[in-house]
Amino acid sequence: xxxxxxxxxxxxxxxxxxxxxxxxxxxxWGGRFSESNAAIMQAINASIDVDKxxxxxxxxxxxxxxxxLAKQGIITGDDxxxxxxxxxxxxxxxxxxxxxxxxELEDIHMNVEARLKAIVGEPAGRLHTxxxxxxxxxxxxxLWLRDQIDYSVGQIDKLLTALLDQAEKHxxxxxxxxxxxxxxxxxxxxxxxxxxxEMLTRDKxxxxxxxxxxxxxxxxxxxxxxxxxxIDREATAAALxxxxxxxxxxxxxxxxxxALEFLAAGAICLIHLSRLAEELVIWSTPSIGxxxxxxxxxxxxSIMPQKRNPDAAELIRAKPxxxxxxxxxxxxxxxxxxxxxxxxxxxxKEITFAAADALDLSLAAMAGMIEDxxxxxxxxRAACQKGHLTAxxxxxxxxxxxxxxxxxxxxxxxxxxxxxxxxxxxIWDLELADLQSVEPRITAQVFEVLSIDAxxxxxxxxxxxxxxxxxxxxxxxRARLNV
Amino acid sequence: xxxxxxxxxxxxxxxxxxxxxxxxxxxxWGGRFSESNAAIMQAINASIDVDKxxxxxxxxxxxxxxxxLAKQGIITGDDxxxxxxxxxxxxxxxxxxxxxxxxELEDIHMNVEARLKAIVGEPAGRLHTxxxxxxxxxxxxxLWLRDQIDYSVGQIDKLLTALLDQAEKHxxxxxxxxxxxxxxxxxxxxxxxxxxxEMLTRDKxxxxxxxxxxxxxxxxxxxxxxxxxxIDREATAAALxxxxxxxxxxxxxxxxxxALEFLAAGAICLIHLSRLAEELVIWSTPSIGxxxxxxxxxxxxSIMPQKRNPDAAELIRAKPxxxxxxxxxxxxxxxxxxxxxxxxxxxxKEITFAAADALDLSLAAMAGMIEDxxxxxxxxRAACQKGHLTAxxxxxxxxxxxxxxxxxxxxxxxxxxxxxxxxxxxIWDLELADLQSVEPRITAQVFEVLSIDAxxxxxxxxxxxxxxxxxxxxxxxRARLNV
Amino acid sequence: xxxxxxxxxxxxxxxxxxxxxxxxxxxxWGGRFSESNAAIMQAINASIDVDKxxxxxxxxxxxxxxxxLAKQGIITGDDxxxxxxxxxxxxxxxxxxxxxxxxELEDIHMNVEARLKAIVGEPAGRLHTxxxxxxxxxxxxxLWLRDQIDYSVGQIDKLLTALLDQAEKHxxxxxxxxxxxxxxxxxxxxxxxxxxxEMLTRDKxxxxxxxxxxxxxxxxxxxxxxxxxxIDREATAAALxxxxxxxxxxxxxxxxxxALEFLAAGAICLIHLSRLAEELVIWSTPSIGxxxxxxxxxxxxSIMPQKRNPDAAELIRAKPxxxxxxxxxxxxxxxxxxxxxxxxxxxxKEITFAAADALDLSLAAMAGMIEDxxxxxxxxRAACQKGHLTAxxxxxxxxxxxxxxxxxxxxxxxxxxxxxxxxxxxIWDLELADLQSVEPRITAQVFEVLSIDAxxxxxxxxxxxxxxxxxxxxxxxRARLNV
Amino acid sequence: xxxxxxxxxxxxxxxxxxxxxxxxxxxxWGGRFSESNAAIMQAINASIDVDKxxxxxxxxxxxxxxxxLAKQGIITGDDxxxxxxxxxxxxxxxxxxxxxxxxELEDIHMNVEARLKAIVGEPAGRLHTxxxxxxxxxxxxxLWLRDQIDYSVGQIDKLLTALLDQAEKHxxxxxxxxxxxxxxxxxxxxxxxxxxxEMLTRDKxxxxxxxxxxxxxxxxxxxxxxxxxxIDREATAAALxxxxxxxxxxxxxxxxxxALEFLAAGAICLIHLSRLAEELVIWSTPSIGxxxxxxxxxxxxSIMPQKRNPDAAELIRAKPxxxxxxxxxxxxxxxxxxxxxxxxxxxxKEITFAAADALDLSLAAMAGMIEDxxxxxxxxRAACQKGHLTAxxxxxxxxxxxxxxxxxxxxxxxxxxxxxxxxxxxIWDLELADLQSVEPRITAQVFEVLSIDAxxxxxxxxxxxxxxxxxxxxxxxRARLNV
Lengths: 483, 483, 483, 483
Hints:
4 copies of one chain form a homotetramer.
Chain A: H1 6-18, H2 39-45, H3 48-51, H4 55-71, H5 77-95, H6 108-120, H7 133-169, E1 174-179, E2 182-188, H8 189-214, H9 233-239, H10 249-254, H11 257-283, E3 291-292, H12 311-318, H13 320-334, H14 347-372, E4 374-375, H15 377-383, H16 391-402, H17 406-423, H18 432-438, H19 447-450, H20 452-458, H21 467-481
Antiparallel strand pairs in A: 1-2, 3-4
Helix pairs in contact in A: 1-2, 4-5, 4-7, 4-9, 5-6, 7-8, 7-14, 7-21, 8-11, 8-21, 11-12, 11-13, 11-14, 12-14, 13-14, 16-17
């Protein structure tokens, strides 16, 4: 078999050939090791391909650490300056694509430190004072995730804006409201879209709550016990925008709650998007025809020239799988791990990065689709002819006007529906005589509540679908959400 | 095959035999149905075995609804009073085990309503005015979950108390701190336990954030479009202790975020407990012997008379599986569901109830285990003899006293460790000459930092393991958490 | 808070009050324990509420074990006879509902053994020779799951029969075939249903492969090391219908692969059912109207008298969540467990039992729905008017008759579709002139391939949708599957 | 915020700048589209970064298809030859890294086809006759997964060999056998390792069963309805090594069972590895010290120079999370999808590829670790001194020699254990008088069964831990597994 085993084998061979002297053990921790790592070990152990995405946060954290060390007199001010200058140079090298990452140096922390040593010499060796990779990576990852949350919240705001714009535009556009995908009662398209505004508002709050909880600095927890150097954890926390330092050094290096909480919140957000995506798919099937997605968000078929497929909606519908899978993955990793850091936790970043990308991509694509969406009010109104959508209004009228208990009114209405089905018309097209054959006390006044528009207009209870309510809800949401 | 198919077949047969007239269609909605449900349909559809657990909340919600209807003049005050009296009687019947639940009546809502009709007659039929089972069940479930969260938070508080008590007691008890389950640096047992205090504090906050978000009343959203009756949603919300009504009627009946968020928070909490449980299992294996669990939380073997098994810890270790499974189950159910209510959502309660029980049971069992836990300080101290736990202290001394860059100090220390391994002793039992053979500038002063106790005492950075820090952390936590 | 904490608290109190002498330690293993278990420990530890479902298998296994012990001369023939007679009596007591299960006796094994002691006295104490609960429960659970798989396979067969009957009936009923929920090419409804026959056939095979793998007897592995008694494991394996004994005693008591494999296979099966359920939900929305589910599998609304909801389909659509959750739960439990048995594994049965019920219920409900399903061929045919379903046939004609490369034909057809959309008609209603305006070489012969029926009839490739193919496929499947 | 949003933004910009004429719609399906895709749409839609890994299978499938078309007279033999030569050239270009992949061409299929057109001109346009991307990708993915399974099975074989070698070497090395991580009975290290041979044997069988089921050819199912061209699906199936064609064209393009089944089987396999990994981590903590992993599979610490961490074992322990997450992801994607192909399914490959890599890496790393593993028989034997490991042997002796029922013997032994604990010695170091103080009938003969070696030697039941049994099991496994 001539199997193409790209991912692993190639990379490993690449390293092996690139580093003829890989027999030398790792220079950061290898002092007492007599043998170098196996190639397969390097492949499974190295995280640089993944965690290089943390480079900006790693450098930011190291600068804050170096300056604090100098302020506390643990290293000299000169050393700190040299270190920070070197780190700034490295940041530029990475941003300009000139930095050569090495898999043997395992991770972003050691890649940066090794390069720093090459640039500034001995002072580089003083940077790791009162610090361990354990608190360093926890700090980097929190900084990154904080940025990520801010970015995702911004993406949600864009989608909220798109939804609010469409909701406002369609505050009076009637359509069937469904339960069980069966027509239930008429609603407005604007009201329907506002349901998603509510969901996304909660998503935003959940992300913000997660941000609040993650915003403590692990820096200075060192390996896991704290340090004997007279460091100032408040200072580094403040310099990095944290609300303060974490309270227990062991928890600080062993905790990945923040990632789990982000993944759970992201999964719930994408479940919301998947519901809207499912609706877009259903609404754009020709038999329904409520909406058309723009060409920008549709694709064709390689074999069927007439096709116009809602691919973007389908891809968004699929994405909760990613977030749910990522949450499950990290949960499985963390479950049952004894204190404190264990290498198992290295799995955290790859899955969180991929999940964050899936979240952002879905939010952006959905915002684009909603902005571009063309609704078809005529098709929506036509669909209201099926399913006797104002049956509840009839029952309510019986309660209100005839003083009938609701349960009895429900039964009377049920019988009216049977009559209408026999005549193959909606209940509002029945003759008064038809209605009276079921309940003699019904008067012609009933027709005032049986039309689609009357029904919608009547639902003025707070949170209801009446156009005036929808317009008020849009205005209130704009003000509250500041979007 | 004479298979014992208890769960399903028996129940169904039971119902079939109990209700000879089951041919009659459901009395609440069956008006226009010509044929009754299949037995298998009843088995898959009925939720009463599960949702009867909501009886108190259902009755509470109905009372608030009836009173509001009366206040708004939608029903008479007399009717409301009769209804509430009937409901109070039903509550007593259920609490005293005298209520006969019927599977044909599908769910708790219809069981209660049918019984109400039997007790009070016609007014019962007026209770469902301006309400649907869709907003009713959403209200009941939120009320139940709010109580559940309050209960779980109380359970967490009990566990926090147990942890703080043990942490205080063992603020000076030294033990090896581990990373990768390898001895890393000495810590105190109290510090170790305080890591869990941090985790549980976050768990508590997460549950409280979830409570804050769920505490809006869906009541009055009716089927999904709101209602034309002049109801007062603020009033029912206030009567039920909600912060206010939900803002969109469609979202209100289609949303189960609150359950998902609770399940995710509960899963993370149980992951924390599983980590502690794993440690208890490891600590109580005879080769480690750091702790003994009380007889109350241990079991024996049916074949090996000498066994003493940490069953409670193992069961707690397993329980995150339940919560993670429940979260995945509900997420799978909700993903891609179009608006608004769909019967798929009926799956929500059974899994949430079971998950809540698993959470509470685990918290209670862990609190009991921790309260009863006997630590063995001598065994913990003895274990500190292995693994050169103060190697970092030596490296730090080299940095501090000799001005060596940390990276160089790390290498020197690595060579000292090799010497100690050759002599089969901890580094603090080496002769000064041994140390000087590696680095001549080392002086006898170094031994002041090499002892286990000196190391622990030195970690005075905020969040560090020094006993004084641990004591301060316990005191601070007691004050902050009010436990 | 007057919280109703049914599940746990009540049960525990119940036990406490029922057993005033619960201070006495467990009689099976408690010899050297000085204190009895905590109430909370009993609540978390006891499994009898769950594993009593294994009673028949437990008794079956004990009988086989006793007879083997006698045959090997380890106990007397008289003892074996007395034991088996006692066990038979216990089985009857349980089946007749006369057996009193005790939570203090923890599980089904000890409940049965304690009762056996009460019935037969001393010989009961000889039954546990050369056996442990570890191999006993593994044996019971495998026996139960083997029965379960046989039952589920039978359920699949019933559903296959229902699908084949409908497929045969509708081998010529044309409907739009969809990709992306967009009409793509015409197919027959029979062909569509036959896709599910393929899926369920694989499900059946997967379950049968799982059965093959589980069918080894753990009995005689004892606690985990095997036994020094001269037992005959082949004999007990044969007596219990196993293909032979397991090969390693440690694996035998630590393995739950069989449950994981069943849950994975069951989850995949329910994913298939969820796809069909989704289609039934979509097909029965009035704008589509392809099918009607019988009253037996539909429900109404408590507020909207006109509703007819596809509840059974929705519940089935939700059920994969249960199986996926169960698989994840057990996987989380088993991950990282050291050899051999750990109490964590006690979680296995409750989730497997519940998952099996969900599987069986879904299969039975789907079989009933499909049997009862009324298809609406006219609506299906009418829907074929939208979406230019024979566009591929036009492209294929251009390839075949004009020798055009497919890619060019695809482009020509795309332009024809644009013309038809402008004229608001399907491509087969265009004039020849219209077609020739795009590609002059097109002749009137093309209309022979452009009708829905011609298209369907032409797809005669193996596995294609031509009615003759579908009929042949139904016949072949009936013969192969023996249903 | 200067956020580094690599993954998405950069890629998109890159494409935008690279393709100034991206305004032109997709050349394969874009005929009737008036507007090109949004950049965000391209980012979410394009799969080429992922599915280029299928290039070899895609080319293999196209060659088989072209040759069959020629054999059936649908294209000319010359065209087929030209096409196959062009495809061979493309394969070389890709293998040599000279092929330029385009994101605008979406996927591997269109990248290859576009390049083919550039190389061979018009005949390239004939290749897509009687084929769609739907059956093409299903074919490619199955071919790839078949190769993957063969590769993974080979990896399992290597690990089996390593385990068998160590098991043979340690067939007589005694160690404590554990349940609940408490010493239970003595076993041999070889026996312990053979438990994993059993697990991996089942894993292999599960993968082989999955392979058997996936090995049907979807090619010729076209978009979803089959084709009117007179193709020979048996011929392409045979040419590609399939056992035959799939039986239903709709199922063929809508099915991803094969990936789900692979992921479930892979997850179970990695759960097994995680159990062994957990044991390696525990065994290598200094207080236990049963094994040492080679330097090749250990790492050090950046702050603690003395550390030697079992990183490889920890990473393997974490990997089931990936497979479980991947299974969950794909299951969520597939759940509830209506027939036939939907774009959601595009998620299948990325997660399956990553999962396969995680599986292979874990198997390879574990094989390396086991090969290199140094066991410490002295430490294992010393650990047998704790936990009265032969208590069951004492109980069995009482049963055998004194005719005591096992339950009574269990109680007597329990009391002996208490005496031994009071004297702080193992039960075999008690005086005869001590034993007789509990049960006077005990004789000195009992000491013959109380030693660790006697205990182990006595467990000769099939599957037991006696060294002779272990050796026989190794030999039997080598013969059966052919490794």
